[in-house]
Amino acid sequence: MVELRSKQLAVLTLLLVVKALLHFYRPGGLLAYFIPSLCWVLVALAVLWACGLRKLLSYTNKTLTIMALLAALFQIALLVDAGLITKFGKSPVSFTPTAIALNTLMITTSLIGVELSRAYLLRTYGKDRPLLVIILTALLYSPTPAMIAMLIPPIEPLSTVKFLGSTFLTELAKNILASYLALLAGPIASLAYTAPLKTFQWYSPILPDLPWGFESLIGVVAPTISLVAIDYVTPATTLKRAGINVKPKWRSEDSITPVLTVLGIFLTVWFSTGLLGVFPTVVLSGSMRPTIEVGDLLILVKTPVERIKPGDIIQYATLDGMVVHRVVEIRDDGKLITKGDACSTPDPEPVHPLNVRGRLIAIIPKVGWTSIYMKEGIRTLWSLVTMNNLTLYGTVSAATATAVLAFYKTRRGRRWKGRRRWTR
Q: Counting Cβ atoms within 10 Å, is residue 121 exposed (0-12), middle (13-18) or buried (19+)?
């Protein structure tokens, strides 16, 4: 028993030292490949010394391994689809024979070292508190030190938000899913998920060139959906063997509802703010009649200016707000000449390419009237409330009195229930 604890402590210590070394020491040249490879080889050998490969592979699950592979392919497919919507770019990775050999050495050793040590940690420490150990393991293999370094002391807020969204959260979500797979089905299952993602990232000559919001969305939502799906189909016996308590209500159909609600809110926020690359807007004027009527909901997509052609309907920013008009001409200097379909002459000011917000891809008739009525109702109510100080004070007093009365009734109800309990 003492020897087993010593081995566990030795593996954990070595892993922490390797993570610290790779974070703080960034060598150049060939050492940038050889040192990480050597470190992960040492970690893998330490894990094999501590428990042996046969023990790690003893709980391999073929079904979960296939689902892990499908989760990786699902995430890659989303990235490719996103690239088709936005654009692709050339991979920054070198594809010379020497570079491919060095990258293969580094990637292979890191995948083996990470997944063997991940499975070992989860099987060693995850029996009693699997959820806590999954989260801690995911944080260990995520760029957590880099995130802390950006927050203490805080640097430029935009850079921090971009790193948080496009790097830290995506890596954390990926590592949570990989850790869950390693706990349930060992290192083969987690490798089936992480290896295809690494292969796509390092060996594809072209990669999706996504806005950071789009990248963050896919990097968080795809592993989350896969995690819910894998958890839902995993047999109760497999969960119990991993130390996860199974409750019938938690495994029921209703258990997915909160997760789907969170995902729905997440997607709604990303969609409405435009971070997804697709965003809505409501038409408030009739300058585009008969093509677009007042109250129509427009769906626009962020589009590079070089892809816009005459005849496209675009939204662009002006000093007076956002305008949705049709492009009738593109000048030699790149500026766009626009015109409303209901207008007899083009707009007086050409549109600078930097002011273009998006291109129209869909029209949903009349749906926007709900938003218009709500905004008008709120504006009217606010105007009535703030018309004079007496109205404002009266409204605040009435709201305060109502809140106090509701609180008082609640307390009375609780006391009455308490008295009933004591009199029985």
A: buried
pTM for the structure as a whole: 0.62
Mean pLDDT for the chain overall:
81
Query: Are the C-beta atoms of residues 292 and 362 closer than 8 Å to each other?
Result: no
Residue with tokens 């806005």, as numbered in its chain: 211
The helices-and-strands tally (H runs, E runs) of the chain is: 14, 8
Of 335, 309, 313, the C-alpha closest to 322 is: 313
Residue 351 DSSP code: B
Please give the Cα distance from 141 to 180 (Å, whole number).
13
How far is residue 414 from each of residues 402, 403, 404, 411, 424, measured CA to CA in Å? 19, 17, 15, 5, 16
- Three-state secondary structure of 292-323: CCCCCEEEEECCCHHHCCCCCEEEEEECCEEE
Phi, psi of 86, deg, nearest 5: -100, -95
Homologous superfamily of domain range 278-367: Umud Fragment, subunit A (2.10.109.10)
Tell me the residue type at 136: L
Contact 282, 372 (CB under 8 A): yes
Element (H, E) at 89: strand 88-90
Q: 90: exposed, middle or buried (C-beta count within 10 Å: 0-12, 13-18, 19+)?
A: exposed
Bridge partner list, 278: 301
Rounded distance between C-alpha atoms, residue 363 and residue 327, angstroms = 17
User: 280 in helix, strand or coil?
Assistant: strand
Domain boundaries, the chain: 2-244, 278-367
Q: Tens of pLDDT along 79-99?
A: 888 887 778 889 999 999 999
Q: Mean pLDDT check: name the lowest of 54-58, 103-107, 319-323, 396-400.
A: 396-400
Q: How far apart are CA 142 and CA 147, in angstroms?
A: 9
